[in-house]
Structures are given as C-alpha cells and as structure tokens.
Amino acid sequence: MKSRIPLVLLACGSFNPITNMHMRLFELARDHLHQTGRYRVIEGIISPVNNNYGKKGLVSARHRIAMAQLALETSDWIRVDPWESEQEKWTETVKVLRHHYNESLRWLQFRKELVRNNWPTERTTEDFLSSLDPVSPELKLLCGADILKTFSTPNLWKEEHIKEIVEKFGLVCISRAGSDPVQYISESELLTQFQHNIHLVTEQIQNEISATHIRHALCKGLSVKYLIPDSVISYIKHYNIYTEESEGKNKGDLTSAYESTQHNDKHTK
Amino acid sequence: MENPDNKTQVVLLACGSFNPITNMHLRLFELAKDYLHETGKYNVIKGIISPVGDAYKKKSLISANHRVTMAKLATESSDWVQVDDWESSQNEWLETLKVLRYHHQKLASSNPANSLQNAVPLIKPGRKRKQEANRYIPVKKNQLSPETKGVPQLKLLCGADMLESFGIPNLWKLEDITEIVANHGLICITRAGNNAQKFIYESDTLWQHKNNIHLVEEWITNDISSTKIRRALRRGQSVRYLVPDAVRAYIEKHNLYSPESEDRNAEVILAPLQKYARGCKQEQTL
C-alpha cells in the first residue's frame, strides 16, 4: 500500500484576533487532503505577522500570539509559531515558508540521528533509516482563495516568490460555496502551470467571521461570543486590547509589503 | 423585581429541533440581546432554549434526551441562556404558542407582584380552536397581556426561516400566529438582503403587529445549519469550531448521527401537519 505523504499546513496572517473561522480553515484543509488519499496532515502552524507589517489596527504580536495560544489549547495538531513576529522587520511569506521547511528538515535529521545513536551500528543502514520516515514532510501554505486574486495586484508580491510558493511548496485555498477560484488560476500563466500544486477546497458551511468585524464589535461593546473562543474573549477584556485607539493605529501608513516591493522594484526579475 | 431604569425586561425564548445545537443558534441570542439593548428600551434578563419533543416527528430528529443534554453542554459557559426541557418532556407535540404561554405563566407566577388569580389556563376549556378564513382574528384582552406589571415580556426568538414558515399551509394556525405577535412579540435574526421585510409587508396579520416584530440583521454570514452539521458528521468531516467543543465531544462519544439516524421519521408526517390536515380544510390567509 502506497504510504501517504506527510504534510504540514502553514497559515500566515494578522490573526488580529484569531477567530473560529481561522481554525476552521485548518480542519477543512485537513479533511480535504485526507480524502484525496495521498496525504497525511501531521501539523498545522499559525504564524502571526510581524508588528512592522504596519496594517491598520494591528495590535502587538505579544497579544496576538497569546490569543492564538489560548485558542489552540484544545487542538492536538495546530500550534502557534512566533518566529515571523520575532524578526526585526516584516518578512515575506516565502521566507516564512522557507524557514519552517528548513526547520522540519532539521527536525527530521535530528530524529534520524537519535535513532542512529540508539541502535547498534550494524543495523543502522541508510535504507533502514529511510524506511522509518521515507519522505520529508511537504509544507503548504493554507489560505483563503482570495489570495490567488491578490497575486495579480501590482507590487504586492514578487513574481519569483509566487513561483517559489506554488512550485516548491504549494497552496491549499479555501473558498466559499458559489465563488469560483478556478478563474484566478486560469487568468495567470504561472498559476496555471502549477495548478496541480494548488488544492482548492470549498467551504459549504458559511461561517465568515472577519477579524475586522470582530474588532469593531468589541469596540462597540457588542457580543462576539461563539465567534471566537471564550478564552480569547476573556483575554481581550482583561487587557482591554481592542479600543478606538488601537483601531486608529497605523492609519494612513503604507503597509510594509508595498514599501518593500516599491523599493526593490528595480532588483526583481 | 425592582426595575429602576424603567426599561422593559425581556426574556427570549427559542423553540426548535436543536438537532444538534450549533454556534449559530447560540449567536441568535447574543445578536438579539445586543439589538434590544441598543434600542435603549429593553433589558434582556434571560434566554431560554426549548428543544422540541420527539412527538414532533421531524425527519432525522434524534432523542430529546440527547438534544437537551447537548444544549445544556452548549450553554454551560453562558450566564444568561439556559435550557428548559418542559416542552421536550411532553408526550404530545405542543404548538409554539402553548410553550410561550407556559413560560409566560411561569414568569408571572414567580413574580411576587402577581398572584395566581391573574393566571389563565393553558388550554381554555370548551373553546374550540376555530380557523376563520380571510379574517383577522381580534386578540382577547382578558388573556395575560404583556402590560402586566413587573412581568418581563417573553419574546419568541427565531431565524428568518421560522418567520417564513408561517406561510406553509397547515403548519401554523392563524390565531396562534396572531397571538404570538400581538401578545408576545418576535425577534427574527436575518441575513442581509433577506426577504423577511417583504414577507411581513405581504401579510395583513404580521403587518398589523409589525411594531412587535423586530428584524435583526446579523453582521457575520453564518450558515451553520444543523442539517449541514449532520451531513458533515455522516461523512466523517470535522465540525470543530462550528459547534461548541463539548457538544462535538458528546456527539462523538455517543455516535449520534449516522445514515440510520438521518432516516428516522422518514415515513412519518410532521405532527402539526398531521393535526391540522385532519381538521378544517379551509384555506387561511396569513
């Protein structure tokens, strides 16, 4: 029986704050990938964006990470990773992917070393070690299908980054029922070339919990119970995180992504 | 009960299958409460979830015991919404109006300002439930009216689908609908662009009492229907983050939803349709 390819899902975003919908994306993606019969999803990683991203209303990464941790307490396979948020400046998505991919390789190597050191020498052939974990896990970017659309926004993504993301890693895109993400793929030569590495998943049970709406509701004193975990609601109340003031932060600033690509424009391609 | 700020006290009652309860059901309460508070006129003091009894005979309806238990698990973290199993423990199916009357009476009798002499029996003896075609039915004021001092107003909380189900032949009695909107009131949570307003406009009965029908638009597109949850479960798909975790764990532990459970009552006619179809065949216009 052909063994399944181990797979890790990585979601990048503001998570400002994390919502039930964010976590639902992971569940949907895992179900879909398992149903193909080809993959075994072994881990989910939430990577909140760096503070220097400069998005309006973005609160400190310290809080966003803490809230995500609270939200994921009950999950046995999804975790938060602070690496991206700890970098000195905003990091392009492809670099985050590279980092986590290298980490998983490093981890795999470490496990192999561990086995090698615990077993008598004559049994630790390379073949034997390979058979323990024949393939290194694939790492795929988990996102909403609207991200496919943003690939065509001028100056938001570097062309070579998009290529590396879809070629070397792959995408798992969740879209709502009734929308047609296939057209975004067909409108792009690059995406069409690597469409086999873009998994489209439709969410039939609409549950669009926009973090922006959540923040606005919190500012107005409206209830967000059952949209985000209770533990996150308590945390937000305790630290009074979302206020009129926090919403006004970074207002009018260009986001780092635009700045970065504008600046580097002459160096691309 | 003292009411220093002169706001009308409100209790919200939601009737339904809750098969199973979902985050969407729970959201209805939160949205309704926020809406009523924002008007400045109301103070919502309690929410009641009343799962329907097994005698309703709806297709795929599993045992009331499970549905009540799941609802209780779901509301454990709420300090104002609770589950009531009176309706589900009755042997026969009860009209929604009867459940409303029961809870209203309960609220009234627990209020020290009202003695039992003001109470009206749930079923009026000797009074036949007549259906009168094409006439609006005046509501008798000797019934327990919402103006009774100190008694909170009891309002029916629902989604737009329940409101529009008023138009399904033989499902509701016109006089029941009239009494619900006249004496109690409706809070209906709708999606943007929904037909609820049009539906009310096109009904003489609803239009007459439109001040007692509150339409609340939800700001999140939330389509977590129990039907879809059951379907996902049958297909081995995850329902995490769509229903409370305790409910998900309970369903898993007891393996509640399967192709077999979905087929329950498949050959049976829904209780209200059975009841009313047998009776008067006259058409009634909502």
UniProtKB/TrEMBL annotation, chain A:
Segments for region (Disordered): 248-269
Location in or out of the cell: Nucleus
EC number: 2.7.7.1, 2.7.7.18
Reaction(s) this enzyme catalyzes, per UniProt: beta-nicotinamide D-ribonucleotide + ATP + H(+) = diphosphate + NAD(+); nicotinate beta-D-ribonucleotide + ATP + H(+) = deamido-NAD(+) + diphosphate
Pathway(s) annotated for this protein in UniProt: Cofactor biosynthesis; NAD(+) biosynthesis; NAD(+) from nicotinamide D-ribonucleotide: step 1/1; Cofactor biosynthesis; NAD(+) biosynthesis; deamido-NAD(+) from nicotinate D-ribonucleotide: step 1/1
Cofactor needs: Zn(2+); Mg(2+)
This protein's record includes keyword Phosphoprotein: yes
Subunit structure: Homohexamer. Interacts with ADPRT/PARP1.
Family: Belongs to the eukaryotic NMN adenylyltransferase family.
NCBIfam families: nicotinate (nicotinamide) nucleotide adenylyltransferase (TIGR00482)
Name listed for the protein in its UniProt record: Nicotinamide-nucleotide adenylyltransferase
Protein species of origin: Terrapene triunguis (Three-toed box turtle)
From TrEMBL, chain B:
Name of encoding gene: NMNAT1
Membrane among keywords: no
Stored InterPro entries: Cyt_trans-like (IPR004821), Euk_NMN_adenylyltrnsfrase (IPR051182), NadD/NMNAT (IPR005248), NMNAT_euk (IPR045094), Rossmann-like_a/b/a_fold (IPR014729)
Domain Cytidyltransferase-like: residue ranges: 13-231
Single GO molecular function: ATP binding
Record pathway: Cofactor biosynthesis; NAD(+) biosynthesis; NAD(+) from nicotinamide D-ribonucleotide: step 1/1; Cofactor biosynthesis; NAD(+) biosynthesis; deamido-NAD(+) from nicotinate D-ribonucleotide: step 1/1
Reported cofactor(s): Mg(2+); Zn(2+)
Catalytic reactions on record: nicotinate beta-D-ribonucleotide + ATP + H(+) = deamido-NAD(+) + diphosphate; beta-nicotinamide D-ribonucleotide + ATP + H(+) = diphosphate + NAD(+)
Assembly description: Homohexamer. Interacts with ADPRT/PARP1.
Entry protein name: Nicotinamide-nucleotide adenylyltransferase
Taxonomic lineage: Eukaryota, Metazoa, Chordata, Craniata, Vertebrata
SUPFAM superfamilies: Nucleotidylyl transferase
GO CC term, one of those recorded: chromatin
One Pfam family matching this protein: CTP_transf_like
UniProt family annotation: Belongs to the eukaryotic NMN adenylyltransferase family.
